[in-house]
Write a structure and sequence with these properties.
Homodimer. Helix content is 46%, strand content 15%. The protein has 395 residues and is of the alpha/beta class. The longest helix has 20 residues, at 295-314. Bound molecules: 4'-deoxy-4'-aminopyridoxal-5'-phosphate.
Length: 395
């Protein structure tokens, strides 16, 4: 290794370790369900995005196996050469139906989707108004586009309006876009989409909502845009297929001309191999299950409300969550890491989330109850929270 690289890596890794900002990565020894095994130990899992429990759903596993038997394990090429299987076409029709739009396009991941979609439409002559707490993939997608990035304070509609007005009146930009998460993943709060749409209309903004954590969760499962009845108002409804949907991938749903454009201009679609047949088949069935019944959705919310009420009663700071995502905000990074480590030792897998994922000084242990948890699991988790919280002086 080049000496300069070796020195750079060693010095900077040490700084992260000293600051409590180096996340150790655990390997899960089996399925990522409500109970997981890590280092040989069974733990109540409150860390996965498998909101509806679909990642381990028997019907989806069966559908994936059948697709593998028929199509093989790989899709063979990028979508624009011959990697588009009839399975991808069916999936995209289903996603458009799910999101109430004319068309949809799928990508290999939600991260990829943000890199693809923003830069396919926005360029250096444009500006993007971006919520300060937007996900890293949105930030990177914005950077890739080379548009001027104007961050507005989190869900602060006065700040957004002032910045939209200034950008519009400056006359400096051809197009202006406003981008927001639908549900903010670190706090579980919901974007103020009706106000955002109002501001967008006033200043002729393109609207872009990343509903990675909303699909399957809000709007009776159909997402945050549906929750507010704004399907006709939002230009880009994007999301991931890896969280509530339980598999992997990302999508944009919108008007047909937008999707047609993304099919010829978004680079991950053009230059990266299509999602595998087993995954596509499972995703399509998962979307159908969410459309057919709210049973899993209802169970998710019941569990989320139960855990939230329990943590609040114990005296934890659960922030401004409006969804099943429930942070316990601790603040100090080292204490947060220690808290999470003790939870694991006691039997709860709830990971510390610290800078740079969240701002410095707002370290938290984030809980993601799912539809697959039982009341008994949640009660056990709450008892452990109480024990560790008292031991470390957090409550
Ligand atoms: N957008 C948001 C808001 C997310 O929270 C995430 C997942 N962490 C992504 C995009 C990326 O999705 P994926 O994991 O499918 O790449």
């Amino acid at each position: 290794m080049a000496k300069i690289l070796d020195t750079f890596l060693n010095e900077n890794l040490q700084i992260l370790r000293d600051q409590g900002l180096y996340n150790e990565i655990d390997a899960v020894e089996g399925a990522n369900g409500p109970i997981i095994q890590v280092n040989g130990k069974q733990l109540i899992n409150l860390s996965s995005n498998n909101y509806l429990g679909l990642a381990t759903n028997g019907e989806l596993k069966q559908v994936a196996k059948e697709a593998i038997d028929k199509y093989g394990v790989g899709s063979g090429a990028v979508r624009t050469i011959n990697g588009t299987l009839d399975l991808h076409v069916k999936l995209e029709e289903k996603l458009a139906e799910f999101k109430g739009t004319e068309a949809a396009i799928s990508y290999q991941s939600g991260f990829n989707c943000n890199m693809a979609a923003i830069s396919a439409v926005m360029d250096k002559n444009d500006a993007i108004l971006s919520d300060q707490l937007n996900h890293a993939s949105i930030i990177d997608g914005c950077r890739l586009s080379k548009a001027k990035i104007i961050a507005y304070n989190h869900s602060d509609m006065e700040d957004l309006r002032a910045k939209a007005k200034e950008a519009k009146e400056s006359g400096l930009y051809n197009k202006i876009m406003v981008i927001t998460d639908g549900v903010f993943s670190m706090d579980g709060d919901i974007a103020k989409l009706p106000e955002i749409v109002g501001i967008a209309k006033e200043f002729d903004l393109i609207t872009y909502v990343d509903d990675a954590h909303g699909s399957g969760v809000t709007g009776k499962g159909k997402g945050t845009v549906k929750h507010f009845g704004l399907e006709k108002e939002i230009d880009f409804q994007i999301g991931t297929l890896s969280k509530a949907i339980g598999v992997v991938g990302g999508y944009v749903a919108g008007k047909k001309n937008l999707i047609d454009w993304l099919k010829v201009r978004s680079r991950p679609f053009l230059f990266s191999t299509a999602v595998t047949p087993g995954d596509v088949a499972a995703i399509t069935r998962a979307v159908q299950l969410i459309m057919d019944s709210t049973e899993l959705h209802d169970k998710l919310w019941e569990n989320g409300d139960y855990l939230k009420a329990g943590l609040k009663k114990l005296g934890f700071n659960i922030g401004a969550s409006e969804t099943p995502i429930t942070p316990c905000i601790i603040g100090d990074e080292k204490l947060t890491q220690q808290f999470s480590k003790r939870l694991v030792e006691e039997g709860v897998y709830a990971k510390a989330i610290v800078f740079p994922t969240v701002p410095k000084g707002t370290g938290r242990v984030r809980n993601m109850p799912t539809a697959a948890h039982t009341k008994e699991m949640l009660d056990n988790a709450l008892a452990i929270y109480e024990k560790v919280g008292r031991e470390l002086g957090v409550i």
